[in-house]
Amino acid sequence: MKPILEVINIGKKFRIQHELKSYLSLRESLMGIFQRKNTSYEEFHALEDINFNVYQGEAIGIIGKNGAGKSTLLKILSKITPPSQGKIISRGRIASLLEVGTGFHPELTGRENVFLNGSILGMTNAEIKSKFDEIIDFSNTEKFLDTPLKHYSSGMQLRLAFAVAAFLEPEILIIDEVLAVGDAEFQKKCMGKMESASKEEGKTILFVSHDLNAITNLTRKSLLLKSGKFAGFDETPKIVEKYLEGDSGDKVYKKEIDLKKPLPQFISAGIKTSLPDDIHAADAEMEVNLQIYVNEETRHTSWLTVQIMDSMDRGCVHVSLSSLQLPLCKSKGIQTITCRFPRLRLYQGQYHFNFYLSGPPGEPIYEIIRNVCPFKVMIIGKERDWSYWPNECVYFEDAKWDLTKIAE
Amino acid sequence: MEYEIKPQRKFDFGMKELWSYKELFYFFTWRDIKVKYKQTVLGFLWAVLQPFVTMVVFTFFFGRLLNVPSAGLPYPVFVLSGLLLWNIFSSGVVNAGNSMVANSNIIKKIYFPRLIIPLSSILVSVFDFLMTLIVFVAVLVFYNITTELHIDWLYFIMLLPLCVLLSCLASFGLGTLLAAMNIKYRDFRYLIPFLVQTLLFVTPVIYPISIVQSSLVKWILSLNPMYAAIEIFRSGLTGVLPEFQLILTSVISSLLILFVGVYFFRKTEYYFADLA
């Protein structure tokens, strides 16, 4: 069987002008004719040598950090922007969903927008008509069908937009991170719809998301991109692992002081686990040490937030040092902060830290460092009669049990 | 169905693909018409009112105060017959020219033949034209009765589609060219209204071409793509045949602009999403 999608040596480069501008002005172009060219261009490879094949009915995840080229790849696949090298052979109708509600117009009614949006996404008029009731049913907006869209709540607009997209019937469906918005219940509904589309109807799906859980649930194979380059195409769990270990970050975060930066900045972050080699025993004490350089005293006392994320990048622990507690960043120079977790009750698994330094709520964020200080939790000294399985829970909780005997 | 996505494509006008997207084209046009008149109290009446008021104003200043000749027609009939087609061109060019930038959010997210966008803007002006036509026919009937114009109605109705087509071709050519330029150089946003305003004065809308004596100037004026449409349309009312050579010049110039416009548009189309 021939693959439904063959991506061969795809690359895309941009020329970036050093003075970054989104568009040219005619005057500059005209001046350029007479002046000697002294604007320097730099070639930037958004994508380089990407190769992979997709077979019909496969659901493929595309994983990579911000700027890895995921969106560029999707744009090339959707024909929105051309590649600068290589080619893609497609053997099916591609529909892409890079955004929900593309072309929605606030002045038009819900009904009119369904037709417009459906048509923009590539449905025929007859198709939309035949699915219209289902779309409205899925979106739960039948009461407002003839109300202009501008009177809809943002949640309703989103539901309507998703509903139209959910009834697309191409052979290949390309979905960018669109599920990140919307409430949890609706997200679940959409995921279910996508799952049935790929597993039951045999549609081919290419799916970009930062939500590794969604990728793991929906796809069997995934493509990993790393700063525009191919970094793996394999079974999803393997790729997810590769993605996470690839950037399991610096064990100890350290940075030179940037004297030009007026805002407070992190200069180091480190942890003390209960065991060597960044291994931590569940329920033991952990110490986090941070150093912050203050160039200019801040107006308000700063806030510091420490967050522990699991291997799926879900937040597990989130604690903040707020302005009322300690005078953070209120004097120039280096400040050392220690945060102790007397009993870190995380379940076994791989974790890492994020640190946030900001003003009080409503004030700007000074700095965020993500994905640093990885550590592994092992269950030691808490043996029980049966073994601990991975992903059984997130953390240990104390429980008190009572047994009441009801009369015989 | 198998197709390839590759870097530099061989050039073609892509008419076949355009045809396969005719429904989207229809929806864009329908949206633009709908949105244009939504939330306006007078609604479609605006399409009627605008040219009518312009006619009254022009008649007062040019017809009465300046005594501009009107080829034997009552001045209101004369100026409205020109404005009718001129409005297709002026609003067509302005809207088409701005259409790509106005729809950049869609262009960045979905693929479709981009020509649909300027094309549908022009169709919106044709819709407005049909509204104005009602006024024109009313004015015509009024003067036909009061001043006994003796209009050859059959001839007039036969000429109408031809003139509308010529106007559409003229506006489409210039409109697509400007749309493509506008995406690349935003200066065109300011240039377009100015250009259209200037063109009004070099087009025989408010004056007949007969007031121009020099044949060289006449020839230069006929390079204007709208020259042919307006002159042919007026000949249906006056019964005086226009100079064939000048008409031909105008049509050729119009087709040339159309070709250049669509060619340039197609050439740069692939990069619109990167520039928009």
Query: What do the pLDDT scores of chain A average to?
Result: 82
Please count the beta strands of chain A (DSSP E, at least 2 residues each): 18
Number of helices of chain A: 8
Radius of gyration of chain A: 26 Å
Beta-strand share of residues of chain B:
under 5%
Overall pLDDT of chain B, averaged? 85
Q: Could you say which structural class the secondary elements and strand pairing of chain B correspond to? A: mainly alpha
Envelope shape of chain A: globular
Strand content of chain A: 25-35%
**What share of the residues of chain B lie within helices?**
over 70%
- Shape assignment of chain B: globular
- Main sheet record of chain B: none
Give helix % range of chain A: 10-25%
Order of helices and strands of chain B: EHHHHHHHHHHHH
Q: In order across it, which strands form the biggest sheet of chain A?
A: 5-6-7-3-8-9
Number of strands of chain B: 1
Low confidence ranges of chain B: none
> Span between N and C termini of chain B?
30 Å
Q: What would you say this structure looks like, in words?
A:
The complex is a heterodimer of chains A (408) and B (276). Chain A is 22% helix and 33% strand. Chain A has 408 residues and is an alpha/beta fold. The relative contact order of chain A is 0.11. The model of chain A has no long low-confidence stretch (mean pLDDT 82). With 276 residues, chain B is mainly α. Chain B is built from twelve helices and one strand. Chain B is globular. The two termini of chain B are 30 Å apart. Strand 4 of chain A pairs antiparallel with strand 1 of chain B.
Topology:
The complex is a heterodimer of chains A (408) and B (276).
Chain A: E1 5-17, H1 26-34, E2 41-54, E3 59-63, H2 70-77, E4 85-90, E5 94-97, H3 110-120, H4 125-139, H5 154-166, E6 172-175, H6 184-199, E7 204-208, H7 212-218, E8 221-226, E9 229-235, H8 236-246, E10 253-254, E11 265-272, E12 279-281, E13 286-294, E14 303-310, E15 315-321, E16 333-341, E17 349-358, E18 365-378
Parallel strand pairs in A: 3-7, 3-8, 5-6, 6-7, 12-18
Antiparallel strand pairs in A: 1-2, 1-4, 8-9, 10-11, 11-13, 13-16, 14-15, 14-17, 17-18
Chain B: E1 3-5, H1 15-20, H2 22-37, H3 45-65, H4 75-102, H5 104-107, H6 116-147, H7 153-184, H8 188-201, H9 215-222, H10 227-238, H11 244-269, H12 272-275
